[in-house]
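Supplementary Data S3. Sequence and structure tokens for construct A.
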Amino acid sequence: MSGIVLWDFDGTLAERPGRWRACLVEVLDEHEPEHGVDPGALRPFLRDGFPWHRADVEHPELCDPDAWWEALVPLLTRAYEGAGLPPARAAELARHVRAQYVDPTLGWRLFDDTLPALTRLRAAGWRSVILSNHVPELEQIVDGIGLAPHVDVVLCSAVTGYEKPHPEAFATALRLTRNGERVWMVGDNPEADVAGGRRAGLPAILVRGDGVGLDDAATEILAS
């Protein structure tokens, strides 16, 4: 029997090494080549302030891409200020982060086991849905790294207004199911993906880090 696999994206199917810290430094490399900022100096300022840090709060007002990014500017500005840049320049640089982050050719890459796992499941009749806390341009990134042909639907929190593990994030995905279909959740975040999925009544698999690889996850799903 087939069904749907809900996949987290960043850290599960693909990665941008260094994540937001690396992106902010890349912007500095381009616009302030003598900056001397270590990525570690940015870390404390990026631990809070993203929409997914308040996953219990829905945010329909941020479902417009420009509004989503505008709401992020103060956070990114504070990070640059914390690394020693003057406030005006920090605010200016913060507005360059969007173009850098959403460009699929700049740092994004699939994990080696992503396409083999998705291909195995597709061959067995399973549909793949991305359910991710991410930026509004997630579909652009998915397409740009060659993942789109292997995915049926992309559900992004910046578009739906709900961050995992909010129950409505999973409810949105479950509305895609057909009668009697089984649904699994696979992700690298123990709370947002695994605990959130299980609270929604789904079997969930933790991957990467202390979890298993996607090949093992696919095997478990196919054996269910």
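Construct B, processed identically:
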Amino acid sequence: MTQWQIGIIGFGEVGGIFARALAEHPSVEAVRTWDIRFDTDPAAADAVPVPVHASPGLAAMCDGSMLLISAVTAANTLPAAEAAARVLRPGTLYLDLNSASPATKRQAAQRVVAAGGRYVDAGVMTSVPPHGLGVPMVMSGPDAAAIAEPLRALGMNVKAVSDAVGTASAIKMSRSIMIKGLEALVVESYVNARRYGVEAHMLPTLAETFPGIDWPAVGAYFFSRVARHGKRRAEEMAECARTVAEGGVEPLMAAAVARKMAWIAGLSGDGVFDGLSADDGWPAYADRIIAEIGQTDPSPPATDP
């Protein structure tokens, strides 16, 4: 039985979940991780839980790994691949989970393949929590079909869809436009309704139009996720806009969603949502936003008779 040596590039939410799960698998001999934060914040490396090993550098991690999983932010997709390509061992499988455009993934693949690595484009098709390692993923690239079964044996829920790098990314980006777009619409709609004091009238109309959806619960989940991961979502939506533009269509919606996510990320960075969670409900988030932007009267101006 193959004993895997695995390296995780990026120890954020996704990298941490994958690393911890893989480290417990009987076919895995060791899981090492490296995050750019480790270079400037030793405490971040010290916080990596056993049995996952925090590597002293990317080169050290790559030197001992036969499988590299890239789980960085969208904006760092290509820089991570370029950095890994300089130090990875020939034959290393590079599984790129990041939310980037097909063109960005193809550039990353060129760097990895030129260094002797095997690049697989992966698209994560829903939120990793609560699925963990079993989150549904599509994969594309020349090695996608060959590696699918070994990855499933590790507990991953993967499906090879094409031998062309960029196909998995195109699927992911198309989905993200819809999902992140819904998040942005819910945030804007709910804050607006709350600001005008009409949410008790507006939300029931959503339930009438789309029965079976718990709109207050959806709002609480969306607000909490956007408040926590707005920066990551903004970067992903910028890649979505790039994907749309690469296809020859003006990315009006994707670009607008990216701006909305960046705005929420700015509020979050300023501490506007500190102490809140989904359990507090969407109105708590909306009230923080309203308080931050000010209490100007939203009523329409009176007109002369």
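The first strand starts at residue 4 and ends at 9. The mean pLDDT is 94.
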